[in-house]
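Trying the structure run again after the queue cleared.
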Amino acid sequence: MKKADEIPSRPGTLVTLFLCGDVMTGRGIDQILPFPCDPAIHESYMQSALGYVELAETVHGRIPAPVDFRYIWGDALDILDSMAPDARIVNLETAVTVRDDYWRGKGINYRMNPKNVPCLTKARIDCCSLANNHVLDWGYAGLLDTIETLQAAGIQTAGAGPGLSEAAEPAIVGAPGKARVLVFSFGTETSGIPPEWQAAPGRPGVNLLPDLSGETVQAIGEQVSRVRQPGDIVVASIHWGGNWGYTIPLAHREFARNLIDRAGVDIIHGHSSHHVLGIEVYRHKLILYGCGDFLNDYEGIGGYGRYRGDIGLMYFPSIDPSQGRLVQMRMFPTQIHRFRVRRASHTDALWLQNVLNRESILRGASISIDENDVLTLSCNAGE
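Done. Tokens:
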């Protein structure tokens, strides 16, 4: 992690972030990259990661493996270039390791060969949130490999570490001459994180929240206050909740609002849901309860089709760092096709617009769509 004084801060200039949901570059996707791991996996349903490639090819046609490192991002790279965000933050749901000591009894174990990490650097990712239910799929040593590989590639990490204090530290990112962005990463057991994955003094693990209580909010607020400087933007990246369904637990809503009211958090970056959930603008601050899957190897797997887990969003909130307020957010609808991100169709973009306007709490605002199928939330609301 960069120290607090290594990135100069200039409050006042709008800061635009790129946020998205789960980026799952392990298992099937790792197999189409230039340096795949041993494909052997330990699932009751599938014993080879190549099986997920075959499922995708059955429904959508041949994937030209091995692909180059830019392939998986597809149309997203042009969108990132055009939006030029000041910080790019994703939830990376895979171990980055070639170790064979998988976590017994978990059922699903994601890993990506460290030699394939350029698939992340090609998108110029600044920070990977790691407090999730796949980062330890290949053991404590696999977690340490993951952190070492990402940091050696110039990608900061948050939410996991060799010990408790390191797992709780924020990443500090941002464009030179603009406000700093502090990324705190947390996970909950409701997302499927085993309790024994919790980091402890001298033991690797993730930054697992004990609960969503007022005491936990207070503890997070104390962490934030120790590192926050005037003009900083504070992001709480949280892996929480189940995979399917639009209902957002009241405990999640109250916790998110309390983080804003009492802990100095400006943006809630929620993930774990396999599809896009509603958003909230609360006191001019952004709450993304669930960003959906941005990239996965689920093509050809049946079930839950009505939620459209293949459709995602690239979120680009623009924040006034003087108060951490959301000024505007542009959202680009995407679709996963042959393990690659492409622009969603007009029909799918309209469907997403309807879902967001139906499921979100926008307090007088609404989400519009333009002739290029870009969704926009302009914030005059948010009390």
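The chain is about 25% helix and 25% strand. Worth checking whether this holds up in the mutant runs.
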